From TrEMBL:
Transmembrane segments: none annotated. The keyword Ubl conjugation does not apply. It comes from the Bacteria. Substrate binds at R54, G55, A56, R91, Q202, N253, K254. The gene is mtnA. This is Methylthioribose-1-phosphate isomerase.
């Protein structure tokens, strides 16, 4: 995708600077576009924990490069296993992280230590390239769904999305936003209702920024407004991304997704989930009982960060500040994700096509996984 007509991926390597890794600092967007230089596995782990880098597919890709950075310092078996375990534990819910580290280890364990660094960079690059191809295919498959709606509505489609599942959350294209970008580029009059997505506001900050840069019409709404819009026929479809999907089709995504699915179900609005196959966890069935939900720092709920606006202190307008939202002494809880049961999901949009949110549906697209699912 492009920023000011310059094409970027969300992670890249600088061979002129010791093969260090570059990412956009997502905690600074959209107020400033800052590029972080990551030169060690510890710096990669810090970026993942603090959400300077976020989005399930992108976390996996960056962690893969983090292991390559670690091997530059020590390529021994002991160091590789230790650093891989450290990276895999940085965030618990998104399955792509552990998938990517597992794939890296599977590739590198049979490689002699003196050859591991190059092999690690090559494998991380392959993970990135595959993510781009998968997300582009997700976009094409989701585009067919939006095109059907547009044909019925005189070329108009109103989509609601929650959190950020765009190109900044993947290596490129995005998952939930990829069909929207393609629909817009094909001339479909697509408009997006963007949930603010408290407490970190990834919708209001990142999704709105992405859509604006691409020229896609959009409107930011409070998280609690989605059901109202659906009741009044102003939402044709909901498309979200996901951090983990069970083999039975349960979906873990940003907290608040479950409530959107309930509202969509009550109002007969299709609720689609877009994901690459790397986000499917074939080892678990019941998402509510088996998916570990990350509990983040309560300060994310009790405060908000952004630029000051008038008509207050004009001299400081535009300064980025963190403002308290709750009274001192009040406790806050911050579960980062919730699980939407498969029965509320209209379909899963994958790189291989669209399927029912069920074990049978997933296996129809990924028959090679029958033994794993069993």
């Amino acid at each position: 995708m492009k920023i000011d007509n310059v094409a970027y991926r969300s992670v890249w390597v600088d061979p002129q600077d010791g093969w260090t890794v570059r990412i956009f600092d997502q905690t600074r967007l959209p107020w400033s576009i800052d590029v972080l230089r990551l030169s060690t596995a510890d710096e990669v782990a810090h970026a993942i924990r603090t959400m300077q880098v976020r989005g399930a597919p992108l976390i996996g890709a960056v962690a893969a490069y983090g292991l390559a950075l670690a091997l530059r310092e020590d390529a021994s078996d002991t160091a590789m296993e230790r650093e891989a375990a450290m990276l895999a534990e940085t965030r618990p819910t998104a399955i792509n992280l552990r998938w990517a580290i597992g794939r890296m280890l599977a590739r590198l364990r049979g490689v002699a230590p003196h050859s591991r660094v190059q092999a690690a960079y090559d494998e991380a690059a392959a993970i990135c390239d595959e993510d781009v191809a998968q997300n582009e295919a997700i976009g094409r498959n989701g585009l067919s769904l939006l095109s059907e709606i547009a044909a019925r509505r005189g070329n108009r489609v109103d989509v609601l999305t929650h959190c950020n599942a765009g190109w900044i959350a993947t290596v490129d294209w995005g998952t939930a936003l990829a069909p929207i970008y393609m629909a817009h580029d094909q001339g479909i009059d697509v408009h997006v209702w963007v949930d603010e997505t408290r407490p970190r506001n990834q919708g209001a900050l990142l999704t709105a920024w992405e859509l604006g840069r691409h020229g896609v019409p959009h409107t930011v709404i409070a998280d609690n407004a989605g059901g109202h819009l659906m009741q009044h026929g102003k939402v044709d479809a909901v498309i979200v991304g996901t951090d983990r999907v069970t083999r039975q089709g349960d979906v873990a995504n940003k907290i608040g997704t479950y409530l959107k699915a309930l509202a969509a179900h009550d109002n007969g609005v299709p609720f689609w989930v877009a994901l690459p196959s790397t986000t499917i966890d074939w080892t678990i069935g019941d998402g509510v009982r088996e998916i570990e939900i990350e509990e983040r720092n309560a300060d994310e709920v009790g405060a908000i960060t952004g630029p000051l606006v008038g008509p207050g202190d004009v001299d400081r307008e535009g300064e980025v500040r963190t403002i308290r939202l709750v009274p001192p002494g009040s406790r806050a809880a911050n579960p980062a994700f919730d699980v939407t049961p498969a029965r509320l999901v209209s379909g899963l949009i994958t790189e291989r096509g669209v399927c029912a949110a069920s074990e049978a549906g997933l296996l129809s697209l990924f028959p090679e996984r029958r033994q794993t699912a069993a």
